[in-house]
Design brief:
Elements lengths: L2 E9 L4 E8 L9 H18 L4 E7 L2 E7 L4 E8 L4 H18 L18 H7 L8
Antiparallel strand pairs: 1-2, 1-5, 3-4, 4-5
Length: 137
């Protein structure tokens, strides 16, 4: 059971843009890592774009399960995990991250923010904290 990506996005007019993201691509071949990370960023944005405000969904994309939560204020979170990772845990993580993000980052920064301008550093910590290690590893 693995988490690969945790993203916070803003669903504004006319499109969705990434505010902050964390990735764990350590299980992939070194030469595949950047393309896998690009795929996850693109997929997160696409899924958030296609989800309605105030909705939660889980979408299968290739061998991954993408869990998306779009709040009614336009803040969205996407977790990309393998098929075995518990859905309930993903949505609990998304709730926690989006609540904390909205408290720490001004709502005025969401429409124009980018990963370079938003100062929120907790995503990497959450990604490793919620990573489930297989017994014996």
């Amino acid at each position: 059971m693995r988490l690969y990506s945790l993203s916070v996005l803003y669903k504004g007019d006319p499109k969705v843009h990434l505010l902050k993201a964390a990735y764990d691509v350590s299980t992939f071949n070194f030469f595949q890592r950047s393309s896998v990370q690009e795929f996850m960023a693109f997929t997160s944005q696409l899924i958030a774009e296609r989800s309605a405000l105030g909705s939660r969904a889980s979408v299968k994309e290739q061998e991954y399960l993408c869990h998306v939560y779009v709040r009614s204020d336009g803040l969205a979170g996407v977790v990309i995990a393998d098929n075995e990772y518990p859905q309930r845990v993903c949505f609990t993580l998304l709730d926690k991250v989006l609540d904390e993000f909205s408290r720490q980052v001004s709502k005025m920064d969401w429409p124009s923010g980018s990963p370079d301008t938003i100062s929120y550093s907790a995503l990497d910590g959450y990604l490793s904290k919620y990573q489930v290690q297989a017994p014996g590893t």
